[in-house]
Amino acid sequence: MSKRNLIGGHWVSAAAFSENRNPARPEEVIGLFARGSAEDAEQAVAAAAEAFPRWAAASPQFRADTLDRAGSLILARKGELGRVLAREEGKTLAEATGEAVRAGQLFKFYAGEALRLAGEAIDSIRSGVDVEVRREPLGVIGLITPWNFPIAIPAWKAAPALAFGNTVVMKPADLTPASAHLLAEILQEAGCPPGVFNLVMGPGSVIGAALVEHPDVAAISFTGSESVGQGIAEGCARSRKKLQMEMGGKNPMVVMADADLDVAVPACINGAFFSTGQRCTASSRLIVEESIHDAFADRMHQAMSELVLGDPLEAATQIGPVASESQLCGNLGYVELARQEGAEVLGGGQLDRLGYFQAPALFLNASNEMRVSREEIFGPCASVIKAQDFEHAVALANDTEFGLSSGICTTSLRYAREFKRRSEAGMVMVNLPTAGVDYHVPFGGRKGSSVGSREQGRYAAEFYTSVKTAYTFAV
Questions:
Q1: Which residues lie across from 123 on neighbouring strands?
Q2: How far apart are CA 160 and CA 422, in angstroms?
Q3: Strand, helix or coil for residue 169
Q4: pLDDT band at residue 475, thresholds of 50, 70 and 90?
Q5: pTM of the entire structure?
Q6: CATH homologous superfamily of domain 2-247+449-473?
Q7: Which residues in the chain are classed under CATH 3.40.605.10?
């Protein structure tokens, strides 16, 4: 059955539909999904603009109740959502179900935040004058979401936008429309009023561009590649839109000589290879103190060889396929590049089976100057780079144009404390994988990784609201 766009509370057909295929079984068509046009995006913006005054004026309790119902429905349908997500994106069923649970938690968290949006009452420096500072919704928000977390990222964008009184037009990734479509269905079932949440599926070059250029869209929240983000930033600058972007990372995990390898190796395996390495927070640079380099590499190689690659729906599977044929080709190109740049490559080949399966890869004897150590691969590949000591490790970790996440494995409180202070990243982990952030704390990075205010937690109010200062003089 063809899946249509949601515009103004109605399921609207499109002139064309695209096949959504299973990367583990490319011959399997999951469904046909609307391929919207710029006109569809304009209609969705118009519906969101019309709905905005009523939604913004609704009581916080009404918005909270709507989001809480949505969260409960997501949690009740986590099995269905997880299975759809695993089939269309390729992550394991356990990871996909966990992502669905996270989406439900996000909606429930922001249901509470709808009731907690606070202002300030400040005494003026002038006698008889009161000052009030309050937060107000922006209007229509355009959300452009990626394929690697196709239910969690839409949730952590849409939930705060709606909680604080905005209306939404969401453009999900072409590779993973089914998860976003289910989210739209759930918001309808939860009683979201017509036009408050709109879904327009289709190519980013068409739908995303229409949202960025539309004068009635107040803000854009984007997660995706740096190259696409650059174009969005330029468009938002032209149209003077508020902008929030998350664009990736080349995240370091430092392993010191004093580290407990029983902790460090699982943390690096998880950070580098789980979700098939398709996380912007993945540990793609493993910076290891040289005195333990060989022992660490041996332990990593052994742990890699024990990982179970297979169909995401099978319970024993730990690593599924990459999301698409083009992603697989790009990853394999980087594996060959690592060899050309002089690294010793362990693993990394395409598996001899149907589907887009790639074995995890370690690039030994890598340097921080190699392209494979500087460019985001977005696959199960990690460079292993030797560090002379702690100071050298910190310098290597910070020597990147990105700054999303970082980590250190150590038993030294001094090293842990110093690394947390000196790491040029928005999120820092000690003896934990670089990937994985709780839903109630801020998410975001520095340098080329992020633009604008943080996502998630209470910090989301910084982006999805505008601050107003009001004066009253009693006469």
A1: 130
A2: 31
A3: strand
A4: confident
A5: 0.95
A6: Aldehyde Dehydrogenase; Chain A, domain 1 (3.40.605.10)
A7: 2-247+449-473
As a 3-state breakdown, the chain gives helix, strand, coil percent values, each rounded to 5, of 40, 25, 30
Q: Token pair 């690294």 is at which residue?
A: 343
Q: Are strands 16-22 and 10-12 parallel, antiparallel or unpaired?
A: unpaired
In this structure, which CATH number among 3.40.50.620, 3.40.50.2300, 3.40.30.10, 3.40.309.10 belongs to the domain 251-430? 3.40.309.10
Burial of 238 (0-12, 13-18, 19+ CB in 10 A): exposed
Residues 6+ apart with CB under 8 A from 99: 82, 85, 91, 149, 151, 152
Report which residue type is found at 33.
F
β-strands 402-403, 405-409 pairing: unpaired
Burial-class residue 38 by CB neighbours within 10 Å (0-12, 13-18, 19+).
middle
- 155, 183 Cβ separation under 8 angstroms: yes
**Whole-angstrom Cα Rg for the chain:** 23
**For residue 371, what are the CA distances in angstroms to 352, 363, 375?**
27, 12, 6
Single out the catalytic residue among 88, 99, 113, 246.
Answer: 246
Catalytic residue chosen out of the listed positions 236, 268, 280, 381: 280
In sequence order, what are the residues at sequence separation of 6 or more whose Cβ sits closer than 8 angstroms to the Cβ of residue 351? 309, 357, 358, 359
pLDDT in tens, 60-100: 999 999 999 999 999 999 999 999 999 999 999 999 999 99
| In the block, residue with structure tokens 């190109």 | 333
Predicted confidence (pLDDT) per residue in 369-406, tens digit: 999 999 999 999 999 999 999 999 999 999 999 999 99
Query: What is the C-alpha to C-alpha distance for residues 145 and 114, in angstroms, rounded to an integer?
Result: 23
Kindly state the tokens that stand for 261: 């390898």
Query: Residue 184, Cα to own-chain centre: how many angstroms?
Result: 18
| Cβ–Cβ < 8 Å for 59, 46 | no
Judge whether 280 counts as a catalytic residue.
yes
